[in-house]
Write a structure and sequence with these properties.
- 2 copies of one chain form a homodimer.
- The first copy, chain A, is mostly beta strands.
- Chain A folds into 3 domains: 69 residues; 444 residues, YVTN repeat-like/Quinoprotein amine dehydrogenase (Methylamine Dehydrogenase, Chain H, 7 Propeller); 112 residues, Sandwich (Immunoglobulin-like).
- Helices cover 12% and strands 39% of the residues of chain A.
- The first copy, chain A, is built from 8 helices and 40 strands.
- In chain A, helix 1 runs antiparallel to helix 2.
- The termini of chain A are far apart.
- Chains A and B meet through helix 1, strand 3, strand 29, strand 36 and strand 37 of A and helix 1, strand 3, strand 29, strand 36 and strand 37 of B.
- The structure holds copper (II) ion (CU) (2 copies).
- The site of one copper (II) ion has 6 residues of chain A, from loops.
- One copper (II) ion binds next to loops of chain B.
Chain lengths: 638, 638
């Protein structure tokens, strides 16, 4: 029940955890390599962390050795045996891999990769004309958060939304086919990080935050080095039309995002209230903000045309005093903001403060009305451990916060924290349990925890550094996603699962919410060019080949074109049998795509190499799959 | 022990297996949609499969219902609990995903994706200058086989080799860092499918086969439609230099590959001895070939300059009667060829014949000497089931063959098959056990089975159609890799594991062979441009930024360039701490790469957008990882 290891840095392989001050000191040591003026500004932070570690360490009775060698795993009772199904769909953001992953919970199996901001030769994403249009010429991305669309505070099984922090975009995924069906570029912003859909009554808006402050109009004009002119924006996107509705401009940066359960507020943490451009500047202040956006007031401002328009986007002034925002001071460099399933509390953690701040959402009306000070809405601020990042919930009144310096999950009771804030009692704590994880946890999420149906069964700890948890696979090692049973009083580690670079966040959605929406095939007519009869047509030097694919033959045995022709292949998989996909690759022509049942995909290229090139099916489809091929004959120009 | 389900087609979701004739008939039904002349040529095949199914079905006592609902899984005893390590590194070819995967066995965890023929934004593969040079402008591929380098018949832990069937290349992966360190384009070939390294005394040569017959000089000259002029090549690559040594030209196509255990022979199956260009032509003949290549005679021909040179490559004549090859007739459209761990037998399966052919390698000298007929070397040809593809071994004299129409693994005894061939006994069979798999198995591999240290512990069944084995994730579903315990008399299914499109083959290598070679960091000086001191230098409009990355800061806080400059960033991760990687992304500039400890990666691009662009670390590295960023200032041209 008590803490086992309080602190750990990023240690050398095999050295295990180090306790207390030692780890905090590694931060100092590491920073000192860059030397100079940085050091002096960072030292106070390091010392304050170390001090907090000591006090916490004493309060909790000190550190004990790493519990790495469990005698037996309790996973067996949760095993999803051959032929059995998982209870939850996990939707995981793949970080700089640019993809979204579907993870079965509790098996932790990756059931699918959904390419979003990455080229995927396996599926043809980024190669087909259809997907190229979605990507707009940018094929890297940084997916931090995947969120589902909502109705009345729980998932409706319709869409997933996923950000791109690198190239500043939002993508929408259709849950029925688990493919991206729309994207939108977010202007006037960089570091598009937090994203959250409206939770009630339905998802009409999706909001996004800019983590990096920039000039609003970033065209090279003005003194680009003067960071005091920079700001952030809170972007509102129409979920149905996938268009930017408006942007609320702030002076501060805006990091993680959440919405409330009434459709009236959205939230953004701001870790750089200083407006700094260097790491030391960003750490100067002891208090930063939870920024609250009033949707009532934003809607009123839009209705009253109380905005300016830049590049066609309404820009609303969200600085202090405009009535659109409330700036609630919270300790130093807050990271996550999460709303409790009852809708009553927003929990914010200051990653370089050992606390969680509990904001009473029911008091926000009074904050916006000016009846109370913003800080008055903070009804609890318990000390929970070092490096608190994200908080999730079990629907039974408990919060679970990831502690990335402590490398722990900490379970604490929200009401207990509020009560102790009101009536402090010596030696009492809201902390219920601690569990070591392995090793540096970022996001954490419990089953259905971002809905009003939080069920408190499973907790996922998305750990960034797996270090020595798996066979060594070289300099770039996997991450370690850990599955934890939270159905009881104490947390129980069930399973380690290696994860490819680099999952950021995950949501766990009950199977019964998703499964009825998922289809085995699209409707043939969804693609306007669906092919039912193969053909070759020519218009000048443009050749269009319409091709059916029915196991084990393509609809044509030869296609002849001339060198230099612009060739478009439109391929329809005319098999409607579930899980019977065909691949389409042209030898030496760098073209590859996979077409699912009744799907149509197209690819356009220049036939710049004369000769005979075999087009072949790359995806197993039939006993005679290897024989499923045709000849692409390119006649030389001369 | 006995068969549970004998036959299954690719059925509709949830309809389960269908027995006997029904499944065979689905092949006819499916083909008949394309109608016409194809049908008439395919009908005999369908009928012969159906007939074989009936006889096998009777011999085995008929079909029984699908055993999909196991009461309890025996996996628990094999679980790799948190903190424990796998026993084997599995190296899996990722098919048209273009990647290689490291899978821990028996956990089945994907421990790493190694990008090879795919762009990987997560690692920067295909984005960095270093990796672009490896890919040669082609970023799709089709990896079918990963093989390890050998010494004295077992793996030496130095390299992995992987083919590209789509763009016809070979890549080499350094096992110490699990990254590609060399690639070579294979000329004069398409469908570069089978690949196998020399097994003894060490891997000096790697051989590759062309599955698709093409004109040798494929420049559009001659009658491109006349398939009788096409042929295949057996390519020899120098493993150290990664250069093509020579190509042995054949009239037939060459599919899967193997080498013997003495360094004297290599093998290729040929399923299209007909030289057909359409599916019906490819199925015309009842016998195709196992082609054997004599390395003694190839070396002699090279030494005697008995070849012509095309595009700088020695082309040897490998047609019948030249002494370089032996064409051993084997039943219809053979697919896999695998050599038993004792080095004595090559096992070939004719995928549209229900048999496995056992070729006695010790008799090949007599074949090449003309003392016996090629077919005399076939010492057994047991009936084992429908759609036999690949065979693997337990080192105890048993073979395990994947049956992709039967959806089974079949275990049979090699010596027993040979004995029964010599002395047929009514009602006797070499078959020892059958296990249903789910559903269409392609490759199968036992632990260490491609070495003389085969240990008979685990068998992997790489199944192409998972259909209803996992939560439905849309039209494109995962594959199903199944783990099977083969340590006892009967095979025991342990685990299903979902796999992303589309693993083809896998090798299972003991941990103790690989682990000592794997490093946590490269040597800093391995990259000639490794940065130890950050700097910005300009040469005309070319700007070179040398940048250190040490958690949590980059070595510079600002980089200023002019619009239109050609900018090269060279980034060295100067942290030597294991598993501490830094990411490097430039907002809105479509650039992303990850740099491991002591690694150096570079990227070159044109600064075509004026403004302030944040460069940020995309890979979690430190408590202040979010603050690890710098400004890239692009001054406008005007
Ligand atoms: Cu196909
Ligand atoms: Cu970093």
């Amino acid at each position: 029940m008590g803490p086992r290891v309080l602190l750990s840095g990023i240690d050398a392989r095999g050295s295990g955890h180090s306790a207390g001050l030692a780890a905090a000191c590694t931060i100092t040591a590491r920073l000192s390599r860059e030397g100079g003026d940085l050091m002096s500004s960072l030292r106070p932070l390091t010392i304050s962390i170390a001090a907090a570690a000591m006090s916490l360490s004493l309060a909790c009775g000190g550190a004990t050795p790493d519990g790495g060698q469990e005698a037996e795993s309790p996973y067996a009772a949760h095993e999803v045996a051959p032929g059995e199904y998982d209870d939850y769909y996990g939707f995981s953001s793949g970080g700089h891999s640019g993809e979204v992953r579907i993870v079965g919970i509790p098996s932790m199996r990756v059931l699918k990769r959904i390419p979003v901001w990455n080229i995927d030769p396996g599926s043809g994403w980024g190669i087909t004309n259809e997907s190229k249009a979605m990507m707009g010429g940018k094929w890297v991305g940084d997916t931090h958060h995947v969120q589902g669309s909502y109705v009345d505070g729980t998932y409706d099984g319709k869409w997933l939304f996923v950000n791109d922090k690198a190239n500043n975009r939002l993508a929408r995924i259709r849950i029925d086919i688990f493919e991206v069906d729309a994207t939108v570029e977010i202007p006037h912003t960089q570091g598009t990080h937090g994203v959250f859909p409206q939770r009630a009554p339905t998802t009409e808006w999706v909001i996004l935050n800019s983590e990096f402050r920039t000039p609003l109009v970033n065209d090279g004009s003005g003194d680009m080095l003067d960071a005091s002119t920079y700001g952030g924006v809170h972007t509102i996107v129409d979920a149905e039309r996938m268009e930017v509705v408006a942007q609320v401009q702030t002076e501060v940066n805006l990091d993680l995002a959440a919405t409330d359960y009434s459709g009236r507020y959205s939230f953004a943490t701001s870790y750089n209230s200083e407006g700094g451009a260097t790491i030391s500047e960003m750490l100067a202040s002891d208090l930063d903000y939870l920024v609250v956006f009033s949707w009532d007031n934003i809607k009123a401002a839009l209705a009253n045309n109380d905005y300016r328009t830049v590049d066609g986007v309404p820009i609303l002034d969200g600085t202090e005093g405009t009535g659109l925002t409330a700036y609630i001071p919270v300790p130093k460099n807050p990271h996550g903001v999460n709303v409790s399933p009852d809708g009553n509390y927003a929990v914010v953690s200051g990653k370089v403060s050992p606390t969680a701040s509990v904001i009473d959402i029911t008091m926000l009306d009074d904050v916006f009305a000016g009846n109370i000070e913003p800080r008055d809405a903070v009804v609890a601020e318990p000390e929970i451990g070092l490096g608190p990042l994200h908080t999730t919930f079990d629907g039974r009144g408990n919060a679970y916060t990831s502690l990335f310096i402590d490398s722990q999950e900490v379970k604490w009771n929200i009401q207990r924290a509020i009560d102790l804030q009101a009536n402090p009692q010596e030696g009492e704590t809201a902390v219920v349990d601690r569990l070591d994880i392995h090793y540096q946890v970022g996001h954490t999420m419990a089953s259905m925890a971002e809905t009003n149906e939080a069920d408190g069964r499973y907790l996922i700890s998305l750990n960034k550094i797996s270090k020595d948890r798996f066979l060594n696979v070289g300099p770039l090692k996997p991450e370690n996603d850990q599955l934890i049973d939270i159905s009881g009083e104490s947390m129980v580690l069930l399973k380690d699962e290696s994860a490819y670079i680099e999952p950021h966040d995950i949501i766990l959605v009950r199977r019964d919410i998703i499964e009825p929406h998922v289809v085995d095939r699209v409707r043939l007519e969804e693609h306007p060019e669906a092919v039912t009869q193969s053909s070759i047509t020519r218009d000048g030097n443009r050749v269009t080949v319409r091709l059916t694919a029915t196991a084990p033959v393509f609809g044509l045995q030869e296609v002849e074109v001339n060198e230099g022709d612009e060739v478009t292949f439109i391929v329809t998989n005319t098999d409607e049998i579930p899980d019977l996909a065909h691949g389409f690759a042209i030898s030496n022509y760098n073209i590859q795509m996979v077409v699912g049942p009744f799907q149509t995909k197209s690819v356009t290229f220049t036939a710049d190499k004369p000769g005979v090139y075999w087009i072949y099916c790359t995806n197993f489809c039939h006993a005679l799959h290897l024989e499923m091929r045709l000849r692409f004959i390119v006649r030389p120009r001369s």
